[in-house]
Design goal:
402 residues; Adenine-n6-DNA-methyltransferase TaqI, Chain A, domain 2; four-stranded antiparallel β-sheet
Length: 402
C-alpha cells in the first residue's frame, strides 16, 4: 500500500506494547463476573459482542488478557478468508478477556486505534495478511505477532488520521441508518406474515381457510441427485443445502454434476425445494426455483415438494415453510445424525398446513409479503452501493488520493 507522500513503517513501530495473544480457559456455565469473547465477536464489520461466554473464575478480572475499551483485536487463526479480521473492543458492561485465537494491539499516541482498524480492514492489507498466514490446512491458518508486527502500514500524520477517521465515520452513520431501515422492514414483513397466517400456531381455523395434512396437497416428493459433484463447470449446476436463502436460490458456490442427470430431475420454474439435511439451525430452509439460470438440478440433501396448484400455490407453500413456527415444528420431527439432522419427507408431509381455501387469497398474502421484499431489496441495493463506495473511499484515503 504505497502512500502518496507518506512513508511506510512496520506495524510494531506504532504500538505502545508488544502484541499479545489472549487466553482460552474452559467456559463456565455459571456467572462469575468476568466475560470471555468468542472468536465470532470479530466480523467483517468489526467488533460485535454477539458471542460472549462466562470465564471460569473471577480471578480472570485481573488477568493480563483483560480488555480495555478501545483495544484493537485481530483474529490470528481461522480460514484464510477470515484470518486477520479486526475490530475495536467496546465495553460489554463488565470485565472481559479475549481468547487465544485473537491478538491484542494497543497503539502509541502516534497512531489512532480507529485509524489502525481502517488500515487492517482495507482490502489490500487483508489480502497481505491472508497470504502471510500459514498452516497445513486451509480450514485453519495462522498469523503470529511477529508476522503482524512486520506488516508495513502507511505512516500518516496524526491530524490526517483524524480527518480520515471522521470522513469514514460519517459514511458509517449512513450505513448504519440503512441497516436499521432494513431491520425495520424485516420486522414489518414478519408482522405481515404472522397476521396473515394467524392460525399457524394451531388455534382455530380462520373463516375461509382450511387445515389439511401437507400430503393432501403435495402429490409427491422427489429426491435430488446423489452423484458425486465437482467444481468443474462443464457439468449441470447442482443446488445443494447451502444454496437456499430467504426463500430463493443462492447461486454462489455452485457445484456441478459431470454425468448425465435424468431430465425429470432438472429444475422447472415454480419448483419448491426443501432442505431435508443440514445443521439444526438451517434444517428446513426452503425456496422456489424461478429459472435463475437456464439449467440446474438439485442434490439429494434437498427434496422437491411441488403442490397441487389448484389448491395450493407454490409461493404460499414456501412462505408457510419459512414461518418461524413451522420451522420449529420441522426441527421437532428431525432426527440427529453425525453433526447434522435429517427430516424424513414422509413425516414432513404429515404436518398440517393452514391456508386460504381460495388460491386467489393465497396470492394476495404472497403479494403483500413480496411488496415488503421489494422494499428490503431496494434498501439492500443502496447499502451495497454505499459499502462499495466506502471501500473505495477508504482505499483512496489511505493512499493519499483524497
Amino acid at each position: 500500500m504505497r502512500s502518496n507522500g507518506w512513508g511506510q513503517i512496520p506495524l510494531a513501530e506504532v504500538l505502545a506494547e508488544p502484541i499479545r495473544n489472549g487466553v482460552s480457559p474452559v467456559e463456565s456455565q455459571a456467572w462469575t463476573g468476568v466475560r470471555m469473547l468468542g472468536l465470532g465477536c470479530l466480523t467483517g464489520e468489526g467488533f460485535q459482542p454477539s458471542q460472549l461466554k462466562n470465564a471460569p473464575s473471577a480471578t480472570y478480572g485481573s488477568h493480563s488478557a483483560l480488555l480495555r475499551d478501545g483495544d484493537l483485536l485481530i483474529s490470528r487463526a481461522n480460514t484464510r478468508n477470515l484470518v486477520g479480521l479486526a475490530g475495536i473492543y467496546r465495553d460489554v458492561g463488565g470485565p472481559c478477556i479475549y481468547p487465544d485465537l485473537m491478538m491484542r494491539l494497543r497503539t502509541s499516541p502516534r497512531y489512532l486505534p480507529e485509524f489502525l482498524e481502517l488500515v487492517l480492514r482495507a482490502p489490500r492489507i487483508r489480502q497481505r495478511i491472508a497470504i502471510m498466514a500459514q498452516g497445513t490446512s486451509e480450514s485453519m491458518v495462522k498469523i503470529s505477532g511477529g508476522m503482524l508486527g512486520s506488516l508495513l502500514i502507511p505512516d500518516v500524520p496524526i491530524d490526517e488520521q483524524r480527518r480520515i477517521v471522521e470522513v469514514v465515520r460519517v459514511v458509517s452513520v449512513h450505513e448504519r441508518a440503512i441497516g436499521a431501515s432494513i431491520a425495520k422492514l424485516r420486522g414489518m414483513r414478519q408482522g405481515v406474515l404472522f397476521a396473515s397466517m394467524a392460525s399457524a400456531d394451531g388455534r382455530e381455523v380462520q373463516p375461509g381457510w382450511t387445515r389439511t395434512r401437507l400430503k393432501e396437497v403435495v402429490p409427491k416428493v422427489e429426491y435430488g441427485t446423489s452423484e458425486a459433484l465437482s467444481r468443474d463447470s462443464q457439468g449441470i449446476p447442482v443446488l445443494r443445502m447451502n444454496n437456499l436463502e430467504d426463500g430463493k436460490p443462492e447461486l454462489s458456490e455452485l457445484r456441478y454434476c459431470p454425468v448425465l442427470v435424468p431430465h425429470r430431475l432438472e429444475l422447472r420454474h415454480g419448483d419448491v425445494l426443501f432442505n431435508r439435511t443440514n445443521s439444526i439451525d438451517h434444517i428446513g430452509k426452503s425456496g422456489m426455483w424461478r429459472s435463475e439460470i437456464p439449467r440446474a438440478t438439485f442434490a439429494s440433501y434437498l427434496v422437491r415438494i411441488n403442490p397441487d396448484p389448484s389448491r395450493l400455490i407454490p409461493e404460499y407453500l414456501v412462505e408457510w415453510l419459512m414461518h418461524p413456527l413451522i420451522r420449529q415444528r420441522v426441527r421437532s420431527i428431525s432426527t440427529v445424525a453425525v453433526q447434522q439432522v435429517n427430516v424424513n419427507p414422509t413425516r414432513l408431509c404429515e404436518l398440517e398446513i393452514d391456508m386460504p381455501a381460495d388460491p386467489t387469497e393465497q396470492r394476495r398474502i404472497v403479494d403483500a409479503l413480496y411488496a415488503c421484499d421489494e422494499q428490503i431489496e431496494g434498501e439492500r441495493a443502496e447499502l451495497a452501493k454505499l459499502r462499495a463506495l466506502k471501500t473505495g473511499l477508504v482505499d483512496d484515503l489511505l493512499t493519499g488520493r483524497v
